[in-house]
Design a protein that fits this description.
- The structure holds two protein chains of two kinds.
- Chain A is built from 14 helices and no strands.
- By secondary structure, chain A is mostly helical.
- Chain A has one domain: ABC transporter involved in vitamin B12 uptake, BtuC (Orthogonal Bundle), CATH 1.10.3470.
- The longest helix of chain A has 26 residues.
- The radius of gyration of chain A is 23 Å and the shape is globular.
- The C terminus of chain A is likely disordered.
- Chain B is of the alpha/beta class.
- The longest helix of chain B is centred in the C-terminal third of the chain and has 16 residues.
- Classes of the chains: A mainly alpha, B alpha/beta.
- At the A-B interface, helix 2, helix 8, helix 9, helix 11 and helix 12 of A face helix 3 of B.
């Protein structure tokens, strides 16, 4: 293709592609645990809090007279995101039912705090746009190294402790009864989510960062039966949509973050519609090895299972 | 056929350790929210014993076993497993817990093998040991589900899902098995498979504490019955005969969870004393 070579030799594009590839690879790994824990929206909550962190970093940078004044924005986001994720985990642990409410309060507090602080720092809420919607074209070499280090850490913990993190995410009560350090493992997932949010912030922006963690997992679970494969497929999809979306923006002037998320959702829609058509046909009797225990009239055959089954929804 | 060898053969290695009860609970009080659920429960399960925990819905059976394995904190009293107070000192690899089956399947599909493999992690063991695939296959074989290893759990029937949870507890080769209503709402073939598995494990020296609605298929195995009522132990001794009309083949309890009507029933009302005919789904199986 004309321009493809041009694209991969462009240093701006090279840095952006490396960042997109790493984020696409690692975000769904963390997302798989979040979906398993039924905390799909956790990433959004952390993303909103990270915005306050960005503004706070900006405020501190401006106060210290640093140039440029947003040099502390990313460290601020990391600190706020980790603090926010720890807070959510503590609240979730204290009162199980209010986790949902705590998340909602973080959503509002994060955005409101961000807008308020950036005003105090002498910026406009427009200054936050790059963080809200991503700014992958401005990735510096230092940013790439930070991304490499953080993604390496995410993959190391996320894959290295997969069995333990699976156990905790799948059935927390059983994990407790096994004497596993459930508190530490839950915290690990929360901190991994926070790190993922701050890494992916450059690529898709804070508002869409959760989509990159969750949508590939939604695609993965459509086509697989196992946790391991869901994670594998999700990471594959994540890398594909990130690199493809970014490459398209080299030729067409659209927002890379939005395009990546729209691509992912389009893949989800196509797979959701097409998968049943290609799925292997299974025998209609789900338990061919269990003998029929109740005689049913032919008219009712096939519809109702045995009466005991009806009692176990 | 796989046999289930325990990691430390009982009897040979440390005779003093064998004298320590598998479970030793003293004056356990548990509150859920504001309401006291357990009010001073004492329970000892010695090595090799098979103890059934019986009682009406809401009597605190599940709360007790969940407290014994450390899921719920006790507000007072002490729990010791193999002589160690609950916490990091407990040899968690020697304890296998089978919770009540939850019908809701978690967000991401997981295969029976993956769920069973998570049983290999305990205490500070956070990574799967070498040869875990073989052990997972053995555990699934033990509950008669070797051919279902690669099925997603949501593709399995309720009874099969319950057997997966049993395999998850067995895969670490425990010496103590704690089961919470393992046959509630389970079809007859799964109940029979479960009883066969338990018979074999008990013959090999497994210590068992099992929450039951009725002794059912397990009746020949149970050596001792503990009956809870309103959070207190009201019987601890020989297995009891069921109330007339509550034993036998015709009387079946197949509901997996509390019946809505029994949930609404005030705890202190004894239905048997009323002028009404005792509904068929009352849970009071055993005479005091």
């Amino acid at each position: 293709m004309i321009g493809l070579w041009e694209m991969v030799t462009d240093p701006f594009m090279q840095r952006a592609l490396v960042a997109a590839l790493l984020v696409g690879l690692s975000a769904p790994v963390v997302g798989t645990y979040l979906v398993q824990k039924r905390l799909a929206l956790l990433g959004d909550g952390i993303g909103h809090v990270a915005l306050t962190g960005v503004a706070l970093g900006w405020l501190v940078g401006a106060a210290m007279g640093l140039v440029p004044d947003d040099v502390l924005a990313v460290p601020g986001a990391v600190v706020a995101a980790v603090a926010g994720s720890v807070l959510i985990e503590v609240v979730r642990r204290r009162g199980r039912t209010s986790g949902d409410l705590a998340l909602a309060i973080l959503f509002y507090g994060g955005i409101a705090g961000g807008v308020l602080l950036i005003g105090l720092a002498g910026g406009s809420s427009g200054s936050l746009m790059a963080y809200l919607f991503g700014s992958i074209s401005s990735v510096t070499l230092a940013d790439v190294w930070v991304t490499v280090a953080l993604c390496g850490l995410i993959l190391l913990i996320g894959l290295g402790l997969r069995a333990a993190l699976f156990s905790v995410s799948h059935d927390e009560e059983f994990a407790v009864s096994s004497g596993l350090p459930v508190w530490v493992l839950n915290m690990a997932v929360a901190v991994l989510a926070a790190l993922t949010v701050t890494v992916a912030m450059r690529v898709v922006g804070l508002l869409l960062v959760s989509a990159l963690m969750i949508v590939p997992v939604a695609i993965g679970q459509l086509v697989t039966r196992s946790f391991r494969r869901t994670m594998l497929v999700a990471s594959g999809v994540g890398v594909t949509v990130c690199v493809t979306g970014l490459s398209i923006t080299y030729w067409h002037n659209v927002s890379p973050g939005a395009l990546i998320v729209v691509l992912a959702i389009a893949v989800y829609a196509v797979v959701a519609v097409a998968h049943p058509l290609f799925a292997r046909r299974r025998p209609s009797d789900p338990h061919p090895d269990i003998p029929d225990d109740v005689a049913v009239s032919p008219a009712g055959a096939g519809g109702a299972a045995n009466p005991q089954e009806e009692c176990t929804p | 056929m796989t046999t289930l060898a325990t990691d430390s053969p009982s009897g040979a290695a440390t005779p003093p350790d064998d004298a320590v009860p598998a479970i030793e609970a003293r004056d356990v009080h548990v509150r859920l929210g504001a309401s006291p659920v357990l009010r001073g429960v004492d329970l000892t399960v010695r090595r090799g014993e098979v103890v059934a925990l019986l009682g009406a819905n809401g009597s605190g059976k599940s709360t007790l076993v969940r407290t014994l394995v450390g899921v719920l904190p006790a507000s007072a009293g002490s729990v010791r497993l193999f002589g160690h107070a609950l916490g990091n000192d407990v040899p968690w690899g020697r304890v296998g817990y089978v919770p009540q089956r939850v019908s809701a399947v978690a967000g991401v599909p997981s295969t029976a093998a993956e769920v069973v493999a998570s049983g290999l992690l305990h205490g500070r063991r956070l990574r799967l040991p070498r040869g875990w695939r073989t052990r997972v296959r053995e555990a699934l074989d033990l509950v008669g589900l070797a051919d279902r290893a690669r099925y997603a759990t949501h593709q399995l029937s309720g009874g099969q899902q319950q057997r997966v949870l049993i395999a998850r507890a067995l895969v670490r080769r425990p010496e103590l098995l704690v089961l919470d209503e393992p046959v509630a709402g389970v079809d007859r073939p799964s109940q029979e498979a479960f009883a066969a598995t338990m018979t074999r494990l008990v013959a090999e020296g497994m210590t068992v504490l099992v929450v039951l609605h009725e002794l059912g298929e397990l009746a020949p195995l149970v050596q001792r019955c503990v009956v809870l009522r309103h959070g207190r132990v009201v019987h601890d001794g020989a297995p009891l005969r069921p109330q007339p009309g509550h034993g036998g083949e015709a009387h079946d309890h197949v509901h997996p969870h509390a019946h809505p009507r029994t949930l609404q029933r005030p705890a202190d009302v004894r239905l048997a004393d009323g002028p009404f005919e005792r509904p068929d789904d009352t849970e009071d199986e055993v005479a005091p």
